[in-house]
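Hi team,

Filling in the usual template for the complex we talked about on Friday. All components are listed, including any nucleic acid strands or ligand strings, so the model treats them as one assembly.

SUBMITTER: L.P.
PURPOSE: interface mapping
COMPONENTS: two
RESIDUES: 447
SEQUENCES:
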Amino acid sequence: MIVLGSLLILGIVLDRIGLLNPAEGGIFRIFEPVQSAFVRIGQGASDLVQTARDLGDLRQRNQQLVELVNQLAVENVRLKEVEAENEILRRLLDFAQSSPGHTFKAAEVRTRVIGRQPDNISQFILIAAGSNDGIQAGMPVVTERGLVGRVETVYPTLSKVRLIIDTNSAVSALVQRTRATGVVKGQPGGELVLDYLPQGQDVVAVGDVVLTSGAGGGFPRQLVIGQVIEIRQKDYEMFQQAVLRPTVDFDRLEVVLIITNFVPLSLEGLEPAPGTSGP
Amino acid sequence: MSPWYYLLVPVLILLGIAQSTLAPFLRIAGLHPDLILILVAIWSVLRGYHEGTIWALVCGLVMDMLSGVSFGAHTLALLAVSLLMHAVRRRVYRLSFGSVLLLVALATPIYYGTMMFAAWAMAGEAFAGSLVSRVILPAALLNAAVAAVVFWPLRWLHQMTGEQEMGW
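RESULT (copied from the run log):
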């Protein structure tokens, strides 16, 4: 104990008078590699801890970025939907402005939600407009591409629309080029046929455009129905038929227009004029 | 009464809605499978008349609400299918997988025939005779093909929920 104490006091004295520096240099030289190794280990450990901390931060940041990407992806989808809807509405607006004879009421077709016919034998859609919106049974339904159908049943906020491709649908029509008239009827499987066309060579041709004629008062005139893609003509039959490709894509209906100022004529309730046999 | 029965009605309503929203997306050559018809037919075979009738009633009413055909036509058509399956089930002790598919195919014209008759009787709606060759027969084949897929989960459900008959 006395020896250690004496060495300590001697060391302090030698350090104060500067005689310990060479000895310290020698000791440092000996310990330097060990110190360096320790420093490296320490730095490595420190880096490891820092990396672990960074990893936690990076994970958190990565998570934030993933969430941001997801939000942006959703926003992107929403903006694309808005853009698509805007395009549809713009085309419908152009169509409405180019047809000043009718007033139109836009309504979303609820096909994507509750709106398609659940069986294969009839063709209906549900639209999100009803009597609260001024919709009445019989009103024609169109898109900017042409005739869709007619409102069949009206509820306060919904309406059922019978499509022109339904087998119980009949629309008075004419061939635009020749003015030959007939009746467009839906066929099983969604086919559209212009029937009761008079026989003749130049009555109808492939590529002719078929429009509503307005006859019968069920639909307004000059709404596009479709284009002739095939003619069925037999000499022994009284009439010939033309198969049409509808201008409207019924599988992709999203927004339709309802012609609200058109009142379809109905023969029901009419009384014959005095002295006539009546309808 | 088992909780299974209480869960059944909302599930059946959802199925009825699914028929008019999802089935149109499964179109093949202009036709879509009659999922509810397939479900009612197979369930009637598996579980008998009582449960088949309830499935037919609930799903049929939902479909009638969403459909443009006269109200009640789908319900009557599905009830007819359930009755047909019940009649077969009473006479045959054990039905094979193939015979169930055959029954679904057979049920399709019964379903559409009843629906068209009901629509004609109630609202005077007439349907073209070509519906048979162009829609109903192809739909029968399509429904039988889809039934081959639907049968197994229904059979599993049948085994999971037991053989209890549903009372009124």
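MY TAKE: The domain at 104-259 of chain A is CATH 2.40.10.340 (Thrombin, subunit H). Chain A touches chain B through 27 residues (CB under 8 Å).

Thanks, L.
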